[in-house]
Amino acid sequence: MEKQQFYYDNKIVKLFFWATVLWGVVGMLVGLMVAFLFLYPNYLTFAGDISWLSFGRLRPLHTNAAIFAFVGNGFFLGMYYSMQRLLKTRMFSDFLGRVHFWGWQLIIVLAAITLPLGYTSTKEYAELEWPIDILVTLVWVVMGINMIGTLLKRRQRHIYVAIWFYISTFVTIAMLYIFNNLELPVSLTGMKSYSVYAGVQDALVQWWYGHNAVAFFLTTPMLGLMYYFVPKAANRPIYSYRLSIIHFWTLIFLYIWAGPHHLLYTALPDWAQNLGTVFSVMLIFPSWGGMINGLLTLRGAWDKVREDPILKFFVVAITAYGMATFEGPMLAFKNLNAIAHYTDWIVGHVHIGTLGWNGFIIAGMLYWLATKLFKTPLYSVKLANVHFWIGTIGILFYSMPLYIAGFTQAFLWKQFNEAGVLVYGNFLETVTQIIPMYAMRAFGGTLYFTGYLILAYNLIMTAKQGSKVEDELAEAVALKPISGKRIKGEGWHTWLERKTVLFTFLAFVAVAIGGAVEIIPLILVKSNVPVIASVKPYSPLELEGRDIYMREGCNNCHSQMIRPFRSEVERYGEYSKVGEFVYDHPFLWGSRRTGPDLHRIGGKFNNNWHFNHMMDPSLTSPGTIMPRYSWMIKNDLDYSTIEEKLKTLVILGVPYSDEEIAGAKAHLQAQAKEVEAALHQDPEYVKNYADSNIQNKEIVALIAYLQRLGTDIKAK
Amino acid sequence: MKIMSNNENMSLWTRFIKSVTKANELGNEEDVMLDHDYDGIKELDNVLPPWWVWGFIFTIAISVLYYVLIHIFGWYGQEDEYQAELVAHEAKVAKYKADHPELYKTENLIAFTDAANLEKGKELFATKTCTVCHLADGGGSIGPNMTDDYWILGGGFQNIFNTIAKGGRPGKGMVEWESTISLEERQQLASYILTLRGTTPATPKAPEGDLWVDDKNTTDDEGTSEEAKAEEVVKEVKEESVTE
């Protein structure tokens, strides 16, 4: 058969290459900035006047930048490079590739603008508001078309395991992203929307998504990269083809089910929680299948690992993957989860995965690709080694203190004296104890970031000394059509590897099952959410306050989910019931308690306390690390869309009557007056703010919301 | 098979490792090499490591068992766990109460008047963040003025002591401090607060609540006797804790 000549598109690879380097720097820098906020709560916001640099708005920017900008571009980089070579063809469409690249960068820039401005849906790693969600979906589909088009024009009969993982990433992220971001815009001209799900259903859908964003954005694409770049860099064969098959299918099938382990001891029904636990446990070996297939591929190449920094990065990355995927299932056991959940332990666990696994596999890949793309040895192998060591030490300094912090804080939260009284009844005392750990974490982060800057420098210098990136000439024989049926002696999976559309479909089926089995019954079966008659929708003012709470990202530090533990009931009040959240679009249960739980904060303090606390938390809580929110006292409350908001919620099933909607503004103003009037009991307030028109400011709405929280079942 | 040769010469550990990994020896890769070639990447077809297979089966078995025991045999429920914790906790506290009745008899407590305890009360007034709402001079801000004769929840030592312990009316801001401030500390605090009466704060908040008239006639001699009594109580409490 005649060989065909063609060119690999290296230009698109180069674009993703530099985007990965750039967003890595940005994402980690923002992470470092927020790490220092734990030590100096107001250093970025200048006495609380710059709202868009506050923790609640920057934390989502960090997570989104690290996940979607850095790891995302890293995945696309490796995929565009390896797919062409594994399939012996240029990508399906140069144009779609450019649309994918520039579209994705546009999304990142839009995220970097809108998140600090407070446009957020608050659902973790899915914070972007609806117009950007639509854009993400479109760009993702463009990528998918380009992937599948490339598969169809391939010159390699069978698809390699790396590509199986790319395919599963594409189909699963599409499914997760669309269903988790189903939201109803308040108006087509504004950014604001409400999640179509409420309360416990929203929580389950969110963590079905959130858990599997980890699985299918931070794990499967990286495994795909591992399967290409590790054997390439080590020049060794993959250890076991049959292990690839088994661990691929079991991994993608089982992963989806494990989402509920993020909601252990919450108001999520037991049957769903326990599914999260058992599927997490079953995930250990499929995950480790990837780890051992990666590490054992290095069998016979360990002498090279000593010399080659690229292989060192890969070894630590795969080891970190193995550690994190063992720790995860352990944390999914309820007794360990009772300690670790809501603490920094989880943050430490996550960063073993992100800094170790994602950061290092991408770093190794970047170094390796630099030599290929620029056709030159690395500018400095020594600097790459420095990066490796400083990064590794950075990971340890980042994570270890957080493990200690998490364990310490959980212990303090639960400690009773013999008289049955909480020893650390003031939440703040449990925070001030772990500040030194935060300092060490920031130090570890600084090391890791420094290592990454060294990488950026090294790669820029390598590019400078190398040659211009050019498309690479290649040749291969076109595929000869053969029977679609299994050929004699052909294994069924080998057969499937040449039926790419069927393969994609089966991968989708495998990932669709778990979510469907968990989510659909929770939405349809009424007995999952017992009705509480005294639970009523929020008043217009409270709703506006809730929107401010979301805008400021209060949920990044405060949970609204009291677990059924004696220590939490004693500290916060009656544990949270599933029926209390039926009007919460979206749910705001939170996942981390940097500050105390707020579900029963209503009625605990008076309005003046909240007023002073928002103006400067250290006035009411000396030593606090909560930043100031003084702009809430300066900003006028914008309630111009309150009727539209209520109407939107009515469509989603919240029972506001037509009269309530018509009278929303009047009701809101009246309640605002009441809240403000109550503030007058403090002479300090009267002296300083009586003439400041506070009843029209945002603070009033926030106070109304906070005072409402958790009170519906208190009245009994 | 070459792997199994020389078996006698291998240590027990090596043999164990061989049996759980079944890894092909490095020199014999051709035996398991597939004819795959993906951009130069070759694939071996080593058997699944037995330790991995058994581990996987084990986790599946554990998971099925866990779920069946919980949901078919009803071995565990989140609500049951909480109720059991409550019962255990309450039993423990009840026993402690029974063993230390003096710590719970608050009705006979009286104000300290000695300098040391009042000084401690003043210190607690700041460190326990009372000053946040009532201001350092007691003039009141978020919370009421403590220097006048008007009290929302009743004046006098016993009422103040109780308010510190149990908090105020819902939504009005006074927190239940029972869980963070010990009995003796609350006694010191309430005693100190009594001494604020009649002082002149910088910005006194307008009176709130009702005028409080102390029924007790606090003459000088009774004052000393009250002081003595108070000290006695503290002594008792301290002795108790020492014997503990």
How would you describe this protein?
The complex is a heterodimer of chains A (about 725) and B (about 240). With about 725 residues, chain A is mainly alpha-helical. Chain A has two domains: about 5-520, Cytochrome c oxidase-like, subunit I domain (Cytochrome C Oxidase, Chain A, Up-down Bundle); about 540-710, Cytochrome Bc1 Complex, Chain D, domain 2, CATH 1.10.760.10. Chain A has helices at about 10-35, 55-85, 95-115, 130-150, 160-180, 200-215, 220-235, 240-255, 270-280, 285-295, 300-305, 310-330, 335-340, 345-375, 380-415, 425-430, 435-465, 490-495, 500-525, 540-550, 565-570, 605-615, 615-620, 630-635, 640-650, 660, 665-680, 685-690, 700-710; strands at about 5-10, 185, 195, 470-475. In chain A, the strands form two sheets. In chain A, strands 1-4 form a two-stranded antiparallel sheet. Chain A has a two-stranded antiparallel ribbon with strand order 2-3. The model of chain A has no long low-confidence stretch (mean pLDDT about 95). By secondary structure, chain B is mainly alpha-helical. Among the domains of chain B are: about 5-70, no CATH class; about 115-215, Cytochrome c-like domain (Cytochrome Bc1 Complex, Chain D, domain 2, Orthogonal Bundle), CATH 1.10.760. Chain B is built from eight helices and two strands; from the N terminus they run αααααβααβα. A two-stranded antiparallel sheet of chain B has the order 1-2. The radius of gyration of chain B is 36 Å and the shape is elongated. Chains A and B meet through α2, α7, α8, α9 and α10 of A and α2 and α3 of B.
Characteristics:
heterodimer, A: 716 residues, mainly alpha, Cytochrome C Oxidase, Chain A, Cytochrome Bc1 Complex, Chain D, domain 2, 2 domains, two-stranded antiparallel sheet, 29 helices, B: 244 residues, 50% helix, 2% strand, elongated, disordered C terminus
Tell me, briefly, the overall form of chain B: elongated
Biggest β-sheet description of chain B: 2 strands, antiparallel
Principal-axes shape call of chain A: globular
Cα gyration radius of chain B (Å): 36 Å
Query: How many helices of chain B?
Result: 8
Give the fraction of residues assigned to helices of chain A: 55-70%
Given as residue ranges, the uncertain stretches of chain B (5+ residues, pLDDT < 50) are 1-5, 217-244
CATH class of the largest domain in chain A equals: Mainly Alpha
